[in-house]
Amino acid sequence: DHHHTSHHTSNMFSSLQHTNTKKLFSFTFNRQICRNYATQSPLYTSVHNGTRHNFYPHLELKDKVPKLPVPTLEHTFSQYQQILKPILNTNQFQRANQQIDVFLNEQGPVLQQELLELDNEVDTSYIEGLWDTMYLELRCPNPINVNPVFQINFQKEQSQELTAAKLIAASTQFAQTIHDASIPVDTVGKDKTPLCMTQYRNFFGTARVPHPQRDELHKYIGSRHVLIIANGQFFQLNVLDEDSKPIKPEVLHQNLLRIQQESRVLGQTECVGVLTADDRTVWAGIRKHFTQLDRKNVQFLDAVDSSLFVTVLDNTEVNSKKELQELLIAGHDRWFDKLQVIVTKNSLVGVNMEHAPYDGATLLTYAQYITAHQFNAEKYSGAQSTTHKVLEYKTDSSLDKSVDNAKKALDAFATITDHEVLEFDRYGKKGIVANKVSPDSFIQMAFQLAFYDVEGKSGSTYESAMTKRFYHGRTETLRTVSEESVRFTRLMRDASASVTEKQSALRDAAAAHGARMMLAQQGLGVDRHLYALHSLAKLRQQRFSGYDVPQIFTDEAYGIMKTDMLSTSNCSSPSVGLFGFGATSANGFGLGYIINNDNMIVGITNYNGRSKEYKEALEKSFDDLHELMSTKSE
Known about the structure:
Helices cover 41% and strands 14% of the residues. By secondary structure, it is of the alpha+beta class. The strands form five sheets. It has an eight-stranded mixed β-sheet with strand order 13-9-8-10-11-12-3-18, with helices on both faces. A six-stranded mixed β-sheet has the order 14-20-19-17-15-16, sandwiched between helices. A two-stranded antiparallel ribbon has the order 1-2. It is globular, with a radius of gyration of 25 Å.
Protein backbone atom coordinates (compact mmCIF):
# COMPACT_ATOMS: atom_id res chain seq x y z
CA ASP A 1 0.00 0.00 0.00
CA HIS A 2 2.93 2.31 -0.53
CA HIS A 3 1.59 4.12 -3.59
CA HIS A 4 -0.48 7.22 -3.32
CA THR A 5 0.28 9.20 -6.43
CA SER A 6 -2.25 9.43 -9.22
CA HIS A 7 -0.91 9.34 -12.74
CA HIS A 8 -3.44 10.45 -15.32
CA THR A 9 -3.26 9.68 -19.01
CA SER A 10 -5.51 11.15 -21.64
CA ASN A 11 -5.51 8.25 -24.11
CA MET A 12 -8.99 6.88 -24.51
CA PHE A 13 -9.81 3.42 -25.75
CA SER A 14 -13.19 1.83 -25.99
CA SER A 15 -13.97 -0.44 -23.10
CA LEU A 16 -12.60 -3.98 -23.08
CA GLN A 17 -14.94 -6.86 -23.63
CA HIS A 18 -15.24 -9.33 -20.77
CA THR A 19 -13.74 -12.56 -21.96
CA ASN A 20 -13.74 -14.36 -18.66
CA THR A 21 -16.16 -17.20 -18.10
CA LYS A 22 -15.10 -19.85 -15.62
CA LYS A 23 -17.45 -22.58 -14.59
CA LEU A 24 -17.98 -23.54 -10.98
CA PHE A 25 -16.29 -26.86 -10.40
CA SER A 26 -16.98 -29.18 -7.53
CA PHE A 27 -16.45 -26.76 -4.66
CA THR A 28 -19.64 -26.43 -2.68
CA PHE A 29 -20.53 -22.93 -1.59
CA ASN A 30 -23.27 -21.20 0.23
CA ARG A 31 -24.23 -19.15 -2.83
CA GLN A 32 -25.12 -16.02 -0.96
CA ILE A 33 -25.54 -13.13 -3.37
CA CYS A 34 -24.12 -9.84 -2.15
CA ARG A 35 -26.15 -6.70 -2.62
CA ASN A 36 -24.77 -4.73 -5.53
CA TYR A 37 -23.71 -1.55 -3.75
CA ALA A 38 -23.41 1.41 -6.06
CA THR A 39 -20.77 2.80 -3.76
CA GLN A 40 -18.69 -0.38 -3.64
CA SER A 41 -15.83 -1.33 -5.88
CA PRO A 42 -16.05 -4.22 -8.37
CA LEU A 43 -13.66 -6.34 -6.33
CA TYR A 44 -15.83 -9.40 -6.69
CA THR A 45 -16.94 -9.10 -10.31
CA SER A 46 -16.59 -12.80 -10.47
CA VAL A 47 -17.84 -13.28 -14.05
CA HIS A 48 -21.53 -14.39 -13.98
CA ASN A 49 -22.90 -11.35 -15.84
CA GLY A 50 -21.42 -8.87 -13.40
CA THR A 51 -23.50 -10.00 -10.43
CA ARG A 52 -21.41 -10.06 -7.31
CA HIS A 53 -21.35 -13.34 -5.46
CA ASN A 54 -19.91 -13.99 -2.05
CA PHE A 55 -18.54 -17.50 -2.38
CA TYR A 56 -16.72 -17.35 0.94
CA PRO A 57 -19.32 -16.53 3.60
CA HIS A 58 -17.11 -18.28 6.17
CA LEU A 59 -14.55 -15.46 5.79
CA GLU A 60 -17.15 -12.93 6.94
CA LEU A 61 -16.57 -12.08 10.60
CA LYS A 62 -18.94 -9.14 10.76
CA ASP A 63 -20.09 -10.00 14.25
CA LYS A 64 -16.48 -10.25 15.50
CA VAL A 65 -14.70 -7.36 13.76
CA PRO A 66 -16.09 -3.82 14.11
CA LYS A 67 -16.56 -1.33 11.29
CA LEU A 68 -13.68 1.08 10.66
CA PRO A 69 -14.45 4.33 12.54
CA VAL A 70 -14.71 7.69 10.75
CA PRO A 71 -12.42 10.01 12.78
CA THR A 72 -13.76 13.42 13.79
CA LEU A 73 -12.45 16.50 11.97
CA GLU A 74 -11.08 17.83 15.27
CA HIS A 75 -9.06 14.66 15.92
CA THR A 76 -7.66 14.43 12.39
CA PHE A 77 -6.69 18.07 12.10
CA SER A 78 -5.03 18.29 15.50
CA GLN A 79 -2.97 15.22 14.46
CA TYR A 80 -2.32 16.76 11.03
CA GLN A 81 -0.88 19.90 12.63
CA GLN A 82 1.46 17.76 14.75
CA ILE A 83 2.59 15.90 11.60
CA LEU A 84 3.17 19.09 9.60
CA LYS A 85 5.09 21.10 12.21
CA PRO A 86 8.42 19.20 12.06
CA ILE A 87 8.47 18.91 8.23
CA LEU A 88 7.58 22.55 7.31
CA ASN A 89 9.31 25.88 7.76
CA THR A 90 7.61 28.59 9.87
CA ASN A 91 5.92 30.35 6.93
CA GLN A 92 4.63 27.11 5.43
CA PHE A 93 3.29 25.97 8.82
CA GLN A 94 1.58 29.32 9.43
CA ARG A 95 -0.13 29.21 6.02
CA ALA A 96 -1.18 25.59 6.54
CA ASN A 97 -2.77 26.50 9.88
CA GLN A 98 -4.72 29.36 8.29
CA GLN A 99 -6.05 27.01 5.61
CA ILE A 100 -6.98 24.41 8.21
CA ASP A 101 -9.02 27.05 10.08
CA VAL A 102 -10.82 28.04 6.85
CA PHE A 103 -11.50 24.37 6.06
CA LEU A 104 -12.87 23.58 9.52
CA ASN A 105 -15.19 26.59 9.35
CA GLU A 106 -16.34 26.20 5.72
CA GLN A 107 -16.05 23.07 3.55
CA GLY A 108 -14.83 20.63 6.23
CA PRO A 109 -18.17 19.97 7.96
CA VAL A 110 -19.96 19.62 4.57
CA LEU A 111 -17.47 17.00 3.32
CA GLN A 112 -17.42 15.24 6.69
CA GLN A 113 -21.21 14.96 6.58
CA GLU A 114 -20.99 13.44 3.07
CA LEU A 115 -18.40 10.99 4.38
CA LEU A 116 -20.61 9.97 7.30
CA GLU A 117 -23.49 9.40 4.85
CA LEU A 118 -21.21 7.27 2.66
CA ASP A 119 -20.10 5.31 5.73
CA ASN A 120 -23.73 4.76 6.65
CA GLU A 121 -24.55 3.52 3.16
CA VAL A 122 -21.68 1.05 2.70
CA ASP A 123 -21.49 -2.27 4.43
CA THR A 124 -17.71 -2.40 4.56
CA SER A 125 -15.78 0.82 5.30
CA TYR A 126 -15.82 4.45 4.23
CA ILE A 127 -12.38 4.11 2.65
CA GLU A 128 -12.69 0.80 0.75
CA GLY A 129 -14.30 2.02 -2.47
CA LEU A 130 -12.04 5.09 -2.55
CA TRP A 131 -8.96 2.95 -1.86
CA ASP A 132 -9.85 0.50 -4.63
CA THR A 133 -10.25 3.53 -6.89
CA MET A 134 -6.75 4.68 -5.91
CA TYR A 135 -5.23 1.35 -6.94
CA LEU A 136 -7.36 0.70 -10.01
CA GLU A 137 -7.09 4.21 -11.45
CA LEU A 138 -3.30 4.36 -11.06
CA ARG A 139 -1.91 4.54 -14.59
CA CYS A 140 1.76 3.96 -13.76
CA PRO A 141 3.27 0.52 -14.49
CA ASN A 142 2.74 -2.20 -11.86
CA PRO A 143 6.36 -3.36 -11.46
CA ILE A 144 8.55 -1.29 -9.09
CA ASN A 145 5.80 1.34 -8.54
CA VAL A 146 3.10 -0.88 -7.08
CA ASN A 147 4.00 -4.58 -6.67
CA PRO A 148 6.13 -5.41 -3.61
CA VAL A 149 8.45 -8.45 -3.60
CA PHE A 150 9.32 -11.05 -0.97
CA GLN A 151 11.80 -13.87 -0.61
CA ILE A 152 10.12 -16.94 0.92
CA ASN A 153 12.33 -19.09 3.17
CA PHE A 154 11.33 -22.26 1.34
CA GLN A 155 13.90 -25.04 1.63
CA LYS A 156 15.82 -25.79 -1.57
CA GLU A 157 15.08 -29.17 -3.11
CA GLN A 158 17.52 -31.03 -5.42
CA SER A 159 16.31 -29.12 -8.46
CA GLN A 160 14.37 -26.04 -9.55
CA GLU A 161 11.52 -28.22 -10.83
CA LEU A 162 11.19 -30.18 -7.57
CA THR A 163 11.29 -26.96 -5.51
CA ALA A 164 8.53 -25.54 -7.75
CA ALA A 165 6.48 -28.76 -7.43
CA LYS A 166 6.61 -28.68 -3.61
CA LEU A 167 5.83 -24.95 -3.69
CA ILE A 168 2.80 -25.35 -5.97
CA ALA A 169 1.49 -28.30 -3.92
CA ALA A 170 1.77 -26.40 -0.62
CA SER A 171 0.19 -23.30 -2.22
CA THR A 172 -2.71 -25.37 -3.54
CA GLN A 173 -3.23 -26.78 -0.05
CA PHE A 174 -3.39 -23.20 1.27
CA ALA A 175 -5.98 -22.36 -1.43
CA GLN A 176 -8.02 -25.32 -0.20
CA THR A 177 -8.03 -24.02 3.38
CA ILE A 178 -9.62 -20.81 2.07
CA HIS A 179 -12.24 -22.77 0.11
CA ASP A 180 -13.17 -25.30 2.75
CA ALA A 181 -13.20 -22.90 5.73
CA SER A 182 -10.36 -24.69 7.53
CA ILE A 183 -8.14 -21.57 7.43
CA PRO A 184 -7.74 -20.41 11.05
CA VAL A 185 -8.88 -16.89 11.93
CA ASP A 186 -5.93 -14.46 12.15
CA THR A 187 -5.55 -12.86 15.56
CA VAL A 188 -3.31 -10.21 17.06
CA GLY A 189 -2.03 -9.50 20.58
CA LYS A 190 -2.15 -11.41 23.84
CA ASP A 191 -5.94 -11.18 23.94
CA LYS A 192 -6.12 -12.80 20.46
CA THR A 193 -8.18 -10.00 18.86
CA PRO A 194 -9.63 -11.45 15.61
CA LEU A 195 -8.63 -9.87 12.30
CA CYS A 196 -10.79 -9.47 9.19
CA MET A 197 -10.35 -12.44 6.84
CA THR A 198 -12.02 -11.11 3.69
CA GLN A 199 -8.73 -10.33 1.86
CA TYR A 200 -8.13 -14.09 1.48
CA ARG A 201 -11.09 -14.44 -0.89
CA ASN A 202 -9.06 -12.58 -3.53
CA PHE A 203 -5.73 -14.24 -2.83
CA PHE A 204 -5.97 -16.88 -5.57
CA GLY A 205 -7.70 -16.84 -8.94
CA THR A 206 -7.65 -13.04 -9.17
CA ALA A 207 -6.44 -10.94 -12.10
CA ARG A 208 -6.08 -7.22 -12.55
CA VAL A 209 -7.41 -6.43 -16.02
CA PRO A 210 -6.38 -3.12 -17.65
CA HIS A 211 -8.94 -0.61 -18.89
CA PRO A 212 -8.40 2.88 -20.30
CA GLN A 213 -9.27 4.80 -17.14
CA ARG A 214 -9.86 2.30 -14.35
CA ASP A 215 -8.71 -1.30 -14.20
CA GLU A 216 -10.92 -4.12 -12.95
CA LEU A 217 -10.20 -7.00 -10.63
CA HIS A 218 -11.62 -10.26 -11.96
CA LYS A 219 -12.12 -13.07 -9.48
CA TYR A 220 -12.47 -16.62 -10.77
CA ILE A 221 -14.16 -19.32 -8.76
CA GLY A 222 -13.47 -22.98 -9.43
CA SER A 223 -10.07 -22.66 -11.14
CA ARG A 224 -8.08 -25.88 -11.10
CA HIS A 225 -4.89 -24.76 -12.82
CA VAL A 226 -1.83 -22.63 -12.31
CA LEU A 227 0.06 -20.78 -15.01
CA ILE A 228 3.68 -21.82 -15.58
CA ILE A 229 6.07 -19.48 -17.40
CA ALA A 230 9.27 -21.12 -18.67
CA ASN A 231 11.62 -19.69 -21.31
CA GLY A 232 9.01 -17.07 -22.20
CA GLN A 233 6.45 -19.81 -22.97
CA PHE A 234 3.14 -20.16 -21.10
CA PHE A 235 1.72 -23.47 -19.85
CA GLN A 236 -1.47 -24.41 -18.07
CA LEU A 237 -0.85 -27.04 -15.37
CA ASN A 238 -3.83 -28.67 -13.65
CA VAL A 239 -3.13 -28.82 -9.90
CA LEU A 240 -6.48 -30.07 -8.56
CA ASP A 241 -8.07 -33.39 -9.45
CA GLU A 242 -11.74 -33.98 -10.41
CA ASP A 243 -12.69 -33.89 -6.71
CA SER A 244 -10.75 -30.64 -6.20
CA LYS A 245 -8.04 -32.39 -4.17
CA PRO A 246 -4.47 -31.06 -4.64
CA ILE A 247 -2.24 -33.10 -6.95
CA LYS A 248 0.78 -34.44 -5.06
CA PRO A 249 4.24 -32.89 -5.59
CA GLU A 250 5.78 -36.04 -7.15
CA VAL A 251 3.21 -35.90 -9.96
CA LEU A 252 3.62 -32.12 -10.45
CA HIS A 253 7.39 -32.65 -10.58
CA GLN A 254 7.07 -34.98 -13.58
CA ASN A 255 4.88 -32.46 -15.40
CA LEU A 256 7.27 -29.59 -14.63
CA LEU A 257 10.20 -31.57 -16.02
CA ARG A 258 8.20 -32.11 -19.23
CA ILE A 259 7.18 -28.43 -19.32
CA GLN A 260 10.84 -27.38 -19.06
CA GLN A 261 11.73 -29.80 -21.85
CA GLU A 262 8.87 -28.63 -24.09
CA SER A 263 9.70 -24.97 -23.46
CA ARG A 264 13.32 -25.60 -24.53
CA VAL A 265 12.15 -27.32 -27.69
CA LEU A 266 9.87 -24.36 -28.45
CA GLY A 267 12.82 -22.06 -27.68
CA GLN A 268 13.22 -18.94 -25.53
CA THR A 269 10.87 -16.29 -26.83
CA GLU A 270 10.26 -12.63 -26.02
CA CYS A 271 7.67 -13.06 -23.29
CA VAL A 272 4.34 -11.44 -24.13
CA GLY A 273 3.90 -11.03 -20.36
CA VAL A 274 6.17 -7.97 -20.41
CA LEU A 275 3.13 -6.07 -21.76
CA THR A 276 1.74 -6.18 -18.19
CA ALA A 277 4.72 -3.98 -17.20
CA ASP A 278 3.52 -1.08 -19.37
CA ASP A 279 1.52 2.04 -18.52
CA ARG A 280 -1.99 0.79 -17.69
CA THR A 281 -3.82 2.75 -20.40
CA VAL A 282 -1.28 1.72 -23.04
CA TRP A 283 -1.60 -1.94 -21.94
CA ALA A 284 -5.42 -1.66 -22.07
CA GLY A 285 -5.22 -0.65 -25.75
CA ILE A 286 -2.71 -3.39 -26.57
CA ARG A 287 -4.79 -6.03 -24.77
CA LYS A 288 -7.85 -5.00 -26.78
CA HIS A 289 -5.87 -5.34 -30.03
CA PHE A 290 -4.53 -8.71 -28.81
CA THR A 291 -8.04 -10.10 -28.21
CA GLN A 292 -9.22 -8.94 -31.64
CA LEU A 293 -6.33 -10.62 -33.46
CA ASP A 294 -7.42 -14.21 -32.96
CA ARG A 295 -9.85 -16.37 -30.99
CA LYS A 296 -6.78 -18.20 -29.61
CA ASN A 297 -5.72 -15.02 -27.84
CA VAL A 298 -9.05 -14.71 -26.02
CA GLN A 299 -8.62 -18.28 -24.78
CA PHE A 300 -5.00 -17.54 -23.83
CA LEU A 301 -6.00 -14.54 -21.69
CA ASP A 302 -8.85 -16.49 -20.11
CA ALA A 303 -6.43 -19.27 -19.07
CA VAL A 304 -3.92 -16.73 -17.73
CA ASP A 305 -6.43 -14.58 -15.81
CA SER A 306 -8.32 -17.52 -14.32
CA SER A 307 -5.22 -19.39 -13.09
CA LEU A 308 -4.91 -19.72 -9.32
CA PHE A 309 -1.53 -17.99 -9.50
CA VAL A 310 1.57 -17.75 -11.72
CA THR A 311 4.72 -19.82 -11.21
CA VAL A 312 7.84 -18.66 -13.04
CA LEU A 313 10.73 -21.05 -13.67
CA ASP A 314 13.38 -18.36 -14.03
CA ASN A 315 16.64 -19.04 -15.85
CA THR A 316 18.72 -16.81 -13.57
CA GLU A 317 21.05 -18.02 -10.83
CA VAL A 318 21.02 -15.60 -7.93
CA ASN A 319 23.94 -15.23 -5.51
CA SER A 320 22.85 -12.46 -3.13
CA LYS A 321 19.71 -10.90 -1.64
CA LYS A 322 20.45 -7.74 -3.62
CA GLU A 323 20.45 -9.71 -6.91
CA LEU A 324 17.29 -11.50 -5.81
CA GLN A 325 15.49 -8.21 -5.07
CA GLU A 326 16.46 -6.88 -8.52
CA LEU A 327 15.25 -10.07 -10.23
CA LEU A 328 11.95 -10.27 -8.33
CA ILE A 329 11.01 -6.63 -8.80
CA ALA A 330 11.53 -6.26 -12.56
CA GLY A 331 12.52 -9.57 -14.13
CA HIS A 332 11.46 -10.76 -17.59
CA ASP A 333 9.15 -13.76 -18.22
CA ARG A 334 6.49 -12.36 -15.89
CA TRP A 335 2.78 -11.54 -15.66
CA PHE A 336 2.61 -8.54 -13.32
CA ASP A 337 -1.24 -8.49 -13.14
CA LYS A 338 -1.40 -11.56 -10.88
CA LEU A 339 0.20 -13.14 -7.83
CA GLN A 340 3.54 -14.54 -9.09
CA VAL A 341 5.72 -17.08 -7.35
CA ILE A 342 9.21 -17.07 -8.87
CA VAL A 343 11.74 -19.92 -8.56
CA THR A 344 15.32 -19.08 -9.58
CA LYS A 345 17.59 -21.50 -11.41
CA ASN A 346 19.28 -22.29 -8.07
CA SER A 347 15.94 -22.84 -6.32
CA LEU A 348 15.51 -19.61 -4.35
CA VAL A 349 11.84 -18.70 -4.01
CA GLY A 350 10.28 -15.25 -4.23
CA VAL A 351 6.94 -13.55 -4.75
CA ASN A 352 5.95 -10.54 -6.84
CA MET A 353 2.57 -9.45 -5.43
CA GLU A 354 -0.09 -7.58 -7.39
CA HIS A 355 -1.17 -5.15 -4.68
CA ALA A 356 -4.72 -4.05 -5.54
CA PRO A 357 -6.65 -6.91 -3.83
CA TYR A 358 -4.66 -7.34 -0.59
CA ASP A 359 -1.74 -6.24 1.57
CA GLY A 360 1.54 -7.68 2.80
CA ALA A 361 0.14 -9.09 6.06
CA THR A 362 -2.09 -11.44 4.03
CA LEU A 363 0.91 -12.58 1.96
CA LEU A 364 2.80 -13.36 5.20
CA THR A 365 0.10 -15.85 6.25
CA TYR A 366 0.59 -17.60 2.90
CA ALA A 367 4.39 -17.61 3.36
CA GLN A 368 4.05 -19.08 6.86
CA TYR A 369 1.66 -21.78 5.61
CA ILE A 370 3.71 -22.97 2.62
CA THR A 371 7.00 -23.06 4.55
CA ALA A 372 5.29 -25.09 7.31
CA HIS A 373 3.67 -27.48 4.80
CA GLN A 374 6.58 -28.06 2.41
CA PHE A 375 6.97 -31.65 3.63
CA ASN A 376 3.37 -32.37 4.52
CA ALA A 377 2.18 -35.46 2.65
CA GLU A 378 -1.44 -35.35 3.85
CA LYS A 379 -4.45 -34.05 1.98
CA TYR A 380 -3.13 -34.88 -1.49
CA SER A 381 -5.08 -36.51 -4.28
CA GLY A 382 -4.43 -40.16 -5.03
CA ALA A 383 -4.13 -39.24 -8.74
CA GLN A 384 -0.95 -40.59 -10.33
CA SER A 385 -0.97 -38.12 -13.19
CA THR A 386 -2.23 -34.69 -14.20
CA THR A 387 -2.35 -32.73 -17.44
CA HIS A 388 -0.65 -29.65 -18.78
CA LYS A 389 -0.68 -27.88 -22.12
CA VAL A 390 1.17 -25.06 -23.81
CA LEU A 391 -0.92 -21.91 -24.22
CA GLU A 392 -0.71 -20.63 -27.77
CA TYR A 393 -1.39 -17.12 -28.98
CA LYS A 394 -1.02 -15.17 -32.18
CA THR A 395 0.93 -11.94 -32.65
CA ASP A 396 1.41 -9.46 -35.46
CA SER A 397 4.09 -6.86 -36.20
CA SER A 398 2.27 -4.22 -34.14
CA LEU A 399 2.11 -6.52 -31.11
CA ASP A 400 5.77 -7.53 -31.51
CA LYS A 401 6.68 -3.85 -31.50
CA SER A 402 4.56 -3.29 -28.35
CA VAL A 403 6.39 -6.17 -26.61
CA ASP A 404 9.74 -4.66 -27.60
CA ASN A 405 8.70 -1.19 -26.37
CA ALA A 406 7.40 -2.54 -23.05
CA LYS A 407 10.62 -4.50 -22.51
CA LYS A 408 12.78 -1.45 -23.22
CA ALA A 409 10.69 0.72 -20.88
CA LEU A 410 10.84 -1.89 -18.08
CA ASP A 411 14.59 -2.32 -18.49
CA ALA A 412 15.12 1.46 -18.48
CA PHE A 413 13.06 1.78 -15.27
CA ALA A 414 14.88 -1.18 -13.71
CA THR A 415 18.25 0.39 -14.60
CA ILE A 416 17.56 3.61 -12.68
CA THR A 417 16.16 1.66 -9.71
CA ASP A 418 19.12 1.29 -7.40
CA HIS A 419 18.96 -1.66 -4.97
CA GLU A 420 20.77 -2.55 -1.78
CA VAL A 421 19.98 -5.03 0.97
CA LEU A 422 21.32 -4.52 4.48
CA GLU A 423 21.70 -7.85 6.29
CA PHE A 424 22.50 -6.73 9.82
CA ASP A 425 23.36 -9.58 12.18
CA ARG A 426 24.93 -7.97 15.28
CA TYR A 427 21.57 -7.91 17.09
CA GLY A 428 17.83 -8.04 16.41
CA LYS A 429 14.51 -8.06 18.24
CA LYS A 430 15.91 -9.71 21.40
CA GLY A 431 18.64 -7.08 21.79
CA ILE A 432 16.18 -4.22 21.28
CA VAL A 433 13.53 -5.60 23.66
CA ALA A 434 16.22 -6.14 26.33
CA ASN A 435 16.53 -2.34 26.37
CA LYS A 436 12.76 -1.95 26.79
CA VAL A 437 12.13 -0.28 23.43
CA SER A 438 9.57 -1.40 20.83
CA PRO A 439 11.52 -3.04 17.95
CA ASP A 440 9.44 -1.25 15.29
CA SER A 441 9.86 2.16 16.95
CA PHE A 442 13.58 1.47 17.36
CA ILE A 443 14.15 0.62 13.68
CA GLN A 444 12.07 3.63 12.59
CA MET A 445 14.34 5.91 14.67
CA ALA A 446 17.39 4.25 13.07
CA PHE A 447 15.84 5.08 9.66
CA GLN A 448 15.39 8.70 10.80
CA LEU A 449 18.97 8.96 12.01
CA ALA A 450 20.36 7.51 8.77
CA PHE A 451 18.24 9.94 6.72
CA TYR A 452 19.45 12.84 8.86
CA ASP A 453 23.05 11.68 8.27
CA VAL A 454 22.69 11.62 4.47
CA GLU A 455 20.42 14.69 4.09
CA GLY A 456 21.19 16.90 7.07
CA LYS A 457 17.47 17.19 7.89
CA SER A 458 14.34 15.09 8.43
CA GLY A 459 11.95 14.20 5.60
CA SER A 460 8.33 13.07 5.51
CA THR A 461 8.13 9.35 6.31
CA TYR A 462 5.38 6.86 5.52
CA GLU A 463 4.98 3.68 7.55
CA SER A 464 2.24 1.21 6.79
CA ALA A 465 0.03 0.19 9.74
CA MET A 466 -2.40 -2.73 9.41
CA THR A 467 -6.09 -2.04 10.11
CA LYS A 468 -7.40 -5.62 9.72
CA ARG A 469 -8.86 -5.37 13.23
CA PHE A 470 -11.75 -3.77 11.32
CA TYR A 471 -14.16 -5.19 8.75
CA HIS A 472 -12.51 -5.05 5.31
CA GLY A 473 -9.65 -3.12 6.94
CA ARG A 474 -6.51 -2.62 4.92
CA THR A 475 -3.90 -0.10 6.05
CA GLU A 476 -3.44 3.31 7.61
CA THR A 477 -0.37 5.52 7.43
CA LEU A 478 1.79 6.20 10.42
CA ARG A 479 3.69 9.45 9.86
CA THR A 480 6.96 8.78 11.69
CA VAL A 481 8.52 12.25 11.82
CA SER A 482 7.60 14.01 15.08
CA GLU A 483 9.10 16.89 17.03
CA GLU A 484 10.54 14.18 19.30
CA SER A 485 12.17 12.29 16.40
CA VAL A 486 13.71 15.50 15.02
CA ARG A 487 15.10 16.39 18.45
CA PHE A 488 16.50 12.87 18.80
CA THR A 489 18.34 12.90 15.43
CA ARG A 490 19.87 16.31 16.17
CA LEU A 491 20.99 15.33 19.68
CA MET A 492 22.51 12.05 18.40
CA ARG A 493 24.87 14.08 16.21
CA ASP A 494 25.48 16.84 18.74
CA ALA A 495 28.95 16.36 20.25
CA SER A 496 27.99 18.37 23.35
CA ALA A 497 24.94 16.21 24.22
CA SER A 498 25.35 13.69 27.04
CA VAL A 499 24.57 9.96 26.82
CA THR A 500 21.66 10.48 29.25
CA GLU A 501 20.18 13.23 27.04
CA LYS A 502 20.51 11.05 23.94
CA GLN A 503 18.97 8.02 25.68
CA SER A 504 15.98 9.97 26.93
CA ALA A 505 15.56 11.61 23.47
CA LEU A 506 15.48 8.13 21.89
CA ARG A 507 12.91 6.92 24.45
CA ASP A 508 10.74 10.02 23.90
CA ALA A 509 10.91 9.62 20.11
CA ALA A 510 10.09 5.88 20.34
CA ALA A 511 7.17 6.63 22.69
CA ALA A 512 5.78 9.28 20.28
CA HIS A 513 6.07 6.75 17.46
CA GLY A 514 4.33 4.07 19.55
CA ALA A 515 1.44 6.42 20.35
CA ARG A 516 0.95 7.20 16.65
CA MET A 517 1.09 3.48 15.80
CA MET A 518 -1.66 2.80 18.33
CA LEU A 519 -3.87 5.51 16.81
CA ALA A 520 -3.21 4.25 13.25
CA GLN A 521 -4.09 0.66 14.20
CA GLN A 522 -7.33 1.95 15.74
CA GLY A 523 -8.22 3.56 12.38
CA LEU A 524 -7.48 7.02 13.79
CA GLY A 525 -4.57 8.05 11.59
CA VAL A 526 -4.62 11.07 9.32
CA ASP A 527 -3.86 10.00 5.74
CA ARG A 528 -6.93 7.85 4.98
CA HIS A 529 -9.40 10.37 6.42
CA LEU A 530 -7.78 13.23 4.47
CA TYR A 531 -7.68 11.06 1.34
CA ALA A 532 -11.41 10.36 1.68
CA LEU A 533 -12.28 14.06 2.23
CA HIS A 534 -10.07 15.05 -0.73
CA SER A 535 -11.73 12.39 -2.94
CA LEU A 536 -15.20 13.65 -2.01
CA ALA A 537 -14.11 17.25 -2.71
CA LYS A 538 -12.95 16.20 -6.21
CA LEU A 539 -16.32 14.51 -6.77
CA ARG A 540 -18.10 17.71 -5.68
CA GLN A 541 -16.02 19.64 -8.19
CA GLN A 542 -17.26 17.31 -10.94
CA ARG A 543 -20.88 17.84 -9.85
CA PHE A 544 -21.05 21.53 -8.93
CA SER A 545 -20.18 24.40 -11.25
CA GLY A 546 -17.63 26.80 -9.77
CA TYR A 547 -16.75 24.53 -6.84
CA ASP A 548 -13.08 24.76 -5.81
CA VAL A 549 -11.32 21.90 -4.07
CA PRO A 550 -10.41 23.28 -0.61
CA GLN A 551 -6.96 24.84 -0.47
CA ILE A 552 -5.69 22.48 2.22
CA PHE A 553 -5.53 19.79 -0.49
CA THR A 554 -3.75 21.98 -3.07
CA ASP A 555 -1.39 23.68 -0.62
CA GLU A 556 2.30 22.72 -0.67
CA ALA A 557 2.06 21.51 2.97
CA TYR A 558 -0.19 18.58 1.94
CA GLY A 559 2.16 17.83 -0.98
CA ILE A 560 5.23 17.87 1.30
CA MET A 561 3.58 15.43 3.73
CA LYS A 562 2.52 13.10 0.89
CA THR A 563 5.95 13.11 -0.78
CA ASP A 564 7.54 10.24 1.10
CA MET A 565 11.27 10.78 1.50
CA LEU A 566 11.17 7.43 3.28
CA SER A 567 8.44 4.93 2.38
CA THR A 568 8.68 2.13 4.92
CA SER A 569 6.88 -1.10 5.70
CA ASN A 570 7.47 -3.87 8.25
CA CYS A 571 6.86 -7.44 7.03
CA SER A 572 8.62 -9.35 9.78
CA SER A 573 8.17 -13.11 9.67
CA PRO A 574 10.50 -16.10 10.09
CA SER A 575 9.11 -17.32 6.73
CA VAL A 576 10.36 -14.29 4.78
CA GLY A 577 14.01 -13.53 3.99
CA LEU A 578 13.64 -10.29 2.05
CA PHE A 579 10.98 -7.63 1.47
CA GLY A 580 11.30 -4.78 -1.01
CA PHE A 581 9.40 -2.25 -3.15
CA GLY A 582 10.15 0.84 -5.22
CA ALA A 583 10.64 4.20 -3.52
CA THR A 584 7.46 6.27 -3.88
CA SER A 585 9.05 9.62 -4.69
CA ALA A 586 11.74 10.69 -7.16
CA ASN A 587 14.33 11.51 -4.47
CA GLY A 588 13.15 9.25 -1.67
CA PHE A 589 14.04 5.76 -0.44
CA GLY A 590 11.91 2.61 -0.25
CA LEU A 591 12.62 0.56 2.89
CA GLY A 592 11.05 -2.89 3.29
CA TYR A 593 12.21 -4.45 6.56
CA ILE A 594 12.18 -7.64 8.58
CA ILE A 595 13.11 -7.75 12.29
CA ASN A 596 14.11 -11.26 13.40
CA ASN A 597 15.23 -12.31 16.88
CA ASP A 598 18.95 -11.90 16.16
CA ASN A 599 19.15 -10.00 12.88
CA MET A 600 17.45 -7.39 10.69
CA ILE A 601 17.06 -7.30 6.91
CA VAL A 602 16.28 -4.09 5.04
CA GLY A 603 15.55 -3.98 1.29
CA ILE A 604 16.48 -0.49 0.03
CA THR A 605 15.54 1.25 -3.25
CA ASN A 606 16.25 4.71 -4.64
CA TYR A 607 16.25 6.26 -8.14
CA ASN A 608 19.40 8.39 -7.78
CA GLY A 609 22.08 5.78 -7.14
CA ARG A 610 22.08 6.55 -3.40
CA SER A 611 20.98 3.22 -1.91
CA LYS A 612 24.54 2.25 -0.92
CA GLU A 613 25.07 5.61 0.79
CA TYR A 614 21.85 5.12 2.77
CA LYS A 615 22.70 1.47 3.55
CA GLU A 616 26.05 2.49 5.05
CA ALA A 617 24.43 5.28 7.07
CA LEU A 618 21.78 2.84 8.34
CA GLU A 619 24.36 0.26 9.39
CA LYS A 620 26.17 3.01 11.34
CA SER A 621 22.83 4.07 12.92
CA PHE A 622 22.16 0.51 14.08
CA ASP A 623 25.64 0.32 15.65
CA ASP A 624 25.41 3.79 17.23
CA LEU A 625 21.98 3.11 18.72
CA HIS A 626 23.09 -0.24 20.09
CA GLU A 627 26.11 1.40 21.71
CA LEU A 628 23.89 4.16 23.11
CA MET A 629 21.43 1.69 24.63
CA SER A 630 24.24 -0.45 26.06
CA THR A 631 26.00 2.46 27.77
CA LYS A 632 25.23 3.14 31.42
CA SER A 633 23.66 6.59 31.87
CA GLU A 634 26.03 9.26 33.10
